[in-house]
Design a protein that fits this description.
heterodimer, A: 11 strands, B: mainly beta, 6-stranded mixed sheet, 5-stranded antiparallel sheet, about 55% strand
């Protein structure tokens, strides 16, 4: 297994456009997290899934953000009507609950909104 | 609930030791430690689940106090490769998300 994979690695978009990111977790990992990270800050929790169920979404998260994890495999994070403040690194992490709760991160998608 | 990390930054000379703390006002289910280098993803170091637990490999180790409200990461005989930002991530229960502190920037100089 090659670890958590995220696509694309970089995305430049114009303000107001929609963007979608994809995360492929480590095979058989049933928990999947999305985080946002800006320069000099820690990863900020956005949302997470247990299999296909979205368990929690950050209260700070705008309604412009939505995430899905169909069939409990890969996940997508969509941002609608992007704003300059959305520019950040979007990180995905996965873990195998109970058996091995440590979470492993993907390389992230760097979003720049111009 | 976001854990509190201290110090915010530390500068060491090669061979010196450092301690990074991570604390919560409530008992935690788990503490995860990560290191992140500039432009890279956080790399998992270790996880602690039990009060009083100590764990380590090579010259990096960590402890989790009996009340499960504080964890410390110990870096001994630091090397240049230890430079980076260290984050602790905590879970309040098995059914809550992993939440990260603001990080501790460690710089090791020759």
């Amino acid at each position: 297994d090659t670890g958590v994979s995220q696509d694309p690695r970089h995305k430049i978009t114009k303000r107001g456009q929609n963007v979608t990111f994809r995360c492929d977790p480590i095979s058989e990992h049933n928990r999947l997290y999305w985080y946002r990270q800006t320069l000099g800050q820690g990863p900020e929790f956005l949302t997470y899934f247990q299999n296909e169920a979205q368990l929690e979404k950050s209260r700070l998260l705008s309604d412009r953000f939505s995430a899905e994890r169909p069939k409990g495999s890969f996940s997508t994070l969509e941002i609608q009507r992007t704003e300059q403040g959305d520019s950040a690194m979007y990180l995905c992490a996965s873990s195998l609950r109970r058996e091995a709760p440590e979470a492993f991160f993907g390389q992230g998608t760097r979003l720049t909104v111009v | 609930q976001q854990p509190v990390q201290s110090p915010q930054a530390v500068i060491l000379r090669e061979g010196e030791d450092a301690v990074i703390n991570c604390s919560s006002s409530k008992a935690l289910y788990s503490v995860h430690w990560y290191r992140q280098k500039h432009g890279e993803a956080p790399i998992f170091l270790m996880i602690l689940l039990k009060g009083g637990e100590q764990k380590g490999h090579d010259k990096i180790s960590a402890s989790f106090n009996e009340k499960k409200q504080q964890s410390s990461l110990y870096l001994t005989a630091s090397q240049l490769s230890y430079s980076g930002t260290y984050f602790c991530g905590t879970e309040n229960s098995g059914n809550t998300p992993l939440v990260f502190g603001k990080g501790t920037r460690l710089s090791v100089i020759a």
